[in-house]
Amino acid sequence: MAAIEPGKIRNVAVVGHRGTGKTSLVEALLYQTGEINRLGAVEAGTTVSDWDEDEQKRRMSISLTLAHANWQERKLNFIDVPGDPSFQGEARCALRVVEGALVVVNAVMGLEVGTARVKHLADDLGLARVLFVNMLDRERADFYRTLAQIQDQFSSRCVAVHLPIGAEHELTGIVDVLHMCAYTSPDGGKEGEPTAIPDEMMEIAQAYREKLLDEVVQTDEALMEQYLGGEELDAHAVASALKLAITKGEVFPVACGVATKNLGTHALLDLIVEGVPSPAKKGAPIEIEGADTAAFVFKTLADPFAGRINLFRVLRGSVTADSTLVDARGHAKERMGTLLQLQGKEHTGVKEFGEGDIGAVAKLKDVRTGDLLTDREIAAELPEIAFPEPVMSFAITPKTKGEEEKVAAAIRRLAEEDPTLQLRRNQQTGEEILSGMSQMHVEVALERAKRRYSVDIELHPPRVPYLETIRSEARAHGRYRKQTGGRGQFGDCHIVIAPLVGGVGYEFVDKIVGGVIPQSFRPAVDKGVQEAMAHGELAGAPVQGVRVSLVDGSYHNVDSSEMAFKIAGSMAWKEAYAKASPVLLEPIMELDVTVPDEAVGSVNGDLNSRRGRLHGMEPAAGMTTIKAEVPMAELLTYAQSLTSMTGGRGEYSMHFLRYDEVPAHVAQKVIDETQKARDLVHS
Q: Is 320 helix (H, G, I), strand (E, B) or coil?
């Protein structure tokens, strides 16, 4: 297959909140274009997109899926994107390489938090947006209520281009007010050619066509003059002006239908061709200078048969089979081998992908998500996919002892597919910490690790990395003397400890004068103090924010040694620490929580109960973002609570801010728990 010219390509990410029917809509679009010969169903696990075992079991999209179709001699590349916030990294990958976003909205639930999230991403990337109000045949579905909500919360420039004929179970078709025609419900069959608008719909269709023209002519001065002068507007001129307005983000058309019945797909396909700009019109989403050929890898998949598959968007030139490109990250040469066109899990070999097209390639040596491939070495910064920070962490251990390396290798392979999964070792607690966007996100990863790499992994709540410090100055004397019949051990030191400004770090000051302790033994005192500081006396946590001054001591010509002074330093530290008002410190997280307006009161109350400090609220389009500081210890179970309070419509992000002193009553509980654990170890 020869490369397709950029002007005949439409790249569209199908996005929206979970459960709006995105996968069913992609299925209907593929069916209507003849790419598939039957309409699959999510419930039956027969759709092109949700082909993975995890997706079929959970009946939801987990990874983005690439599909394509031909309509009006145009190639349409669809990227079906998961709507659950657990997998929002997939949306960021998809939106980075398309010109348009098809935003799917549930006609019963209206605009939901996941839709607002992708709207902001699309805003930032300057993408054209088309909205599709789905599930109009459901009970309590209301197109006009949903349209009003979209105009209120999404943008006042949203304008209906399609209208339903009937409502709920009496829905019989849709009206296309752009082309002034109608489509009757095919009830799951192929949608036929357009028909005349029913007489009872003509008045409302004319009214909404006027609203559409009002929005379009405001973006074109010539059309505005004709419109105000009462002239008949040329249909092609209106379509051209609408496309330009959609491209510039000045108008957002709202279509409608029922994906599971294939209603509205004919008109939607026309709208995508006419409304979403081509790569030739919009230009590359990532500018690259100095190369004739450039491709951006936006997703890595682990296919059970083909191995690792990299999905890419051609930014410049064309990518051909068996060509050699340079990876800008590692500067290694990569032979492209066989190029693949994906239709869900089905692969078709192709010879070339032209500029603006989206394709795939298998078995590259060291290419991963976010890499840039060029035909020659160039000085270029890698394009960024701004992945969200993980918000939920678990300690992980293998069920079978000795498989730690196997577990780490499996998680690393999964993180190649999904960079929002992060594995790190907490040096303080010694735990392997796996972080993700939610508990479900982490659980899905572990299920895949078991199925693909035969490793069983257990989850545990992570230990909070407490620290300890002091609030006052103290002096102590440490003397270590031991006589064993031969040469003995003798070390003697006086230290003064004091808090450091800022409460972090460690400083050792040598104030010995007159050689009361030889220079060769003084570092041993420092070492003994630091080893003792690794496990504080309160809760066994490392001690920070201390200046230790070695001020006096004595030594023995024969019996003194580095080991003796190291032990003496440790003894002096423990005595001084007990007298220096030691306190426990805990990590404080900066938290941003976005919730529906009606849930703000209960969420704020819950944050207060978690010892949170509220810093402000930012309302926007029916949702409010609450900013707060909350101790990490209080957030280990926050995801479940937020889901319960908001009915699954709330989401949050957080990052480490600083360490703060633990209130006395809370600190005592931590200290008591630590003592119990010590007693169990020694019993």
A: strand
